[in-house]
Amino acid sequence: MATLSAHPHPFLPAVNRPPTHILKPLRVSSISAAKSETSAPDKDEEEETWSLTVSDRRREKGLVHAEREEVNRKIASRKAISVILRREATKAFIETKRGPNNSKKLLPRTVLEALHERITALRWESALKVFELLREQLWYKPNPAIYIKLIVMLGKCKQPEKARELFQAMSDEGCVMNLEAYTALLSAYSRSGLFDKAFYLLEEMKDIPMCHPDVQTYSILIKSCLQVFAFDKVRVLLSDMASRGIRPNTVTYNTLIDAYGKAKMFQEMEMTLVEMLRGKDCEPDVWTMNSTIRAFGSSGQIETMEKCYERFQSAGIQPNIKTFNILLDSYGKTGNYEKMSAVMEYMQKYHYSWTIVTYNVVIDAFGRAGDLNRWNICLG
């Protein structure tokens, strides 16, 4: 079982950390002691408390749940209709203006809002059409920022060739080809698994003044390599970074820790975490904590998971809802239902709202145990 105890200083003191609401640490090992403090209720009080039948309670819960679902559906429906109407209105307005005399006289705000909306929604085909319309306007001037946003969008949509065409058009229009533009194209290549082109572009960037790859460039390429388990390429990139004096940042380390954990490469994960802690400019955050405890929890190393969780809390890192979902899932899959209940009580005490993931994890755990009665109590 891998542990983190080998390093003499597991966490550096927090530096310039903004004040946060300090939560009382969740001590999962003291459940039984805490529960034994409550005294047994009086028999009359117990009868009065449980005067409603089980079926009545469930019926009331079902009605409340149904009412909430109906309200949520109505809200979601209104929002969806609003978005659709706004999109259709924008589309109709632009189409009506695309006449022989009007196509070059659109207001900048109209076109730019339509373009921004499509980029945000990753509607790449529609975005490129609006961009063509933008370039037809009399007031149009090449804008590198717009080109870069489009190239990033095309990368996310797995359209590397379209991204390359825009990159070339950007150059043809006289835009300054800066580091951000090259990184956007490199990201488009790596997201689609075109690593030969991505690495070739990386080498090309090293010879271009003001476009030398930085930690963000390397981090993007490292993440893409890790997603296809190309750990050999990752080692080459890390070595290249070191030779150029580029230190990984928190995002780089978190990406590595998460990937090593999912691949059950605990030794590499721990070495990366220790290296991160030794650095002066990098501090672990909640993403570091979640990746670490997920790695140990998903492999059944519950004790190590709990120790890591407590150490991160001692370092001043506060959990989020994803943290609790990981704990619940880990306990549920190993049959630690009492500890699951302790986590849920903690979430309720400090007002952490359940997500769909939380409900699915709890339902799956108690359903697997055949204890749906406990699930009904949790809903109450």
UniProtKB/TrEMBL annotation:
Keywords: Repeat
Pfam families: PPR, PPR_2, PPR_3
Coiled coil location: none
Entry GO MF terms: mRNA binding
Keyword Metal-binding attached: no
UniProt-listed NCBIfam families: PPR
Family membership noted in the UniProt record: Belongs to the PPR family. P subfamily.
Protein name: Pentatricopeptide repeat-containing protein
Organism: Hibiscus syriacus (Rose of Sharon)
